[in-house]
Amino acid sequence: MVKMMRRMAKRMVKKINVSSVLSPEFKESQSISSRSHIAHARQAIEEAAVKGAQLVLLLEIWNSPYSNDSFPVYAEDIDAGGDTSPSTAMLSEGSRCLKITIVGGSMPERWGHNLYNTCVFGTDGKLKAKHQRFTILILIFLGR
């Protein structure tokens, strides 16, 4: 299964211009606010689009510090949208305005009482898919 998925991904990369944005150093920063993370991602997405990218990939937990203490603080309600999810609002607007597809890496998502490490926005700015991954970091947060 993994081999098949890798082959499919390689074929996709050959067909379209792909750009992965945001450096690991930026992702690891603990002192940058959520708005700064979002603004930096937006700038990187715009730069990739100007260079011709049709598909932009963000890193895991790109919109917050990567620490268990930060996940519940930065978690957003993706389904509610608007002010409850400024990250997805930016991804939606960016994909629509730039006519690109954005894989929003993953980001802390609050859904009910649960937290997930979860997205893909199409060229129309609409959420195309999301995967609510319940990971070990969430188990650590819950104290299990």
From TrEMBL:
Positions of the CN hydrolase domain: 38-133
Gene3D superfamilies: Carbon-nitrogen hydrolase
GO biological process, one term: asparagine metabolic process
InterPro entries: C-N_Hydrolase, C-N_Hydrolase_sf
GO cellular component: mitochondrion
Pfam families assigned: CN_hydrolase
GO molecular function, a single term: omega-amidase activity
Name of the protein described by the UniProt record: CN hydrolase domain-containing protein
